[in-house]
Amino acid sequence: MTPLVEIRDLHVEFPGPSGPVPAVRGISLTMGREKLGIVGESGSGKSVTGRALMRLLPRQARIRAAALRFDGVDVATAAPATMRKLRGARMGLILQDPKFSLNPVMRVGNQIAEAWAAHRKGGAQEARDAAFALLEQVLIRDPKRVYDAYPHQLSGGMGQRVMIAMMLAPDPDLLIADEPTSALDATVQAEILRLMDRLVSERGMGLILISHDLPLVARFCDRVAVMYAGRVLEELPASELHHARHPYTRGLLECLPRLDRAVPRLPTLARDPTWLG
Amino acid sequence: MMIEVRALDVRFGSVHAVRDVSFAVAAGESFGLVGESGSGKSTVLRTLAGLAADWTGYMAMDGQPLGRRRSRAFFRRVQMVFQDPYGSLHPRQTVDRILAEPLAVHGIPDGESRIRRALEEVALPRAVRFRYPHQLSGGQRQRVAIARALIADPTVLLLDEPTSALDVSVQAEVLNLLADLRAARQLTCILVSHNLAVVAHLCGRLAVMQGGRIVETLETAALRAGKAQHPHTRELVALSRDLEE
Ligand SMILES: Nc1ncnc2c1ncn2[C@@H]1O[C@H](COP(=O)(O)OP(=O)(O)OP(=O)(O)O)[C@@H](O)[C@H]1O
Ligand SMILES: Nc1ncnc2c1ncn2[C@@H]1O[C@H](COP(=O)(O)OP(=O)(O)OP(=O)(O)O)[C@@H](O)[C@H]1O
Ligand SMILES: [Mg+2]
Ligand SMILES: [Mg+2]
Question: pTM for the complete prediction?
Fold first, then answer.
């Protein structure tokens, strides 16, 4: 069977003042219709990996891979029209900065309706109803007001949920969610994750969850890839994340503040040059 | 009291975003604001910073009542880190320019060494200094915003989800840095975060918001000891505990 996502030996570089700067250095990941978590420190290449798979990197980025496939389609060489059709319709990306990715001068409800209509059959009224339903699904309390609001009129967590609704509208096969719940309180976060979980199990969607929240990923995902400096340092079942042995992963777990007890000073990571590989 | 807010109401047209909110923060204290998405946390901070027009009530900073406008001197003492780091950084300015600006505005000398120190404090590599915001990762952008807030040595920091875009190790570094600054300079902070463990780590007291109102104000020790009263607080604690298991 063709895997939903196949990445083999992916490299991404950006031009720098003194030569190319590597952002991703030889990543390999294969996944089916499951929940894959990607964790790792800031700048380790998580977002760049997700964007490479959607071919959404800036033009100056240099990409090289032995394989970069979505459901058998070679993302590296596919025609722009093919990619446009895949994006939105079959693969969705929830971005880290929701307000940046929403159109600032268009009412958010219309943006969701548009995303829905672009890939499904139905009239304007149907698109409107679908957009309403999606706002309700992501637990927006007053969908009527939010439908007619502009992005700057929304709170951080509302913007994030609008973005999620927009990406769910076309019913994608793969959702790449980059810190999708980082601005949400625990109650809404739990609900959004339940919604995504349902989409994975009922519609067979694949989910890549990029997050800094290790406990969340451990609880929610099937598998986790731990990234460091553009590489995958280790890959393990999510349920075993708390018992990870790699000192980097352990370090990430140990610098979390806890609610059950106070610690005077938080431990930070002591990076080991050998991790660079 | 360094910050005093009494009976604050804020409206955006027909939206009544903040309702009868009161709290006070002593000099050198860190105060947390938590609560459901859309409950008005950012609006409280933005109103303190002079960024919301339609408000009623009483606000004072270091004993001085706050009017409609904020002076330049106010922003020398009070800095804010916004929830949306992308929106708050000028897209056509390099990190260097972004950090140099507050120094120029307030006529602060030693620009070069201050910029270098500010980047170090938030664990940003030197290489990012001449990049633009879109050339940085999400967490790197957030650290630029924190560095910009700290560079002019403010006495009050208004922090809106300052660590939610940071990885846990940088989050730990930033929280340690804030604790050090508080000890060294009597820095006063209001910290908005959806992460209860983060708020509990930095703040001695916190208020819980829902629907524009403060529904409970309590000591962190009471929160940790499971003594929260309001159902919304209890729910947030339960979910946070659940993940710590
Ligand atoms: N357009 C760009 N030009 C130059 N360098 C870039 C560009 N975009 C990203 N980078 C660099 O590539 C590296 C990986 O970035 P990426 O955004 O993937 O990090 P990340 O793991 O998602 O981090 P975070 O958790 O902070 O979001 C970083 O060092 C970043 O500065
Ligand atoms: N400029 C604006 N115009 C209209 N309504 C606004 C504006 N800014 C905020 N609001 C509304 O005010 C309410 C409170 O928003 P606020 O941003 O303070 O919430 P928050 O508690 O910070 O939420 P979050 O945790 O999601 O960031 C929301 O209903 C929001 O839609
Ligand atoms: Mg990222
Ligand atoms: Mg907010």
Answer: 0.90
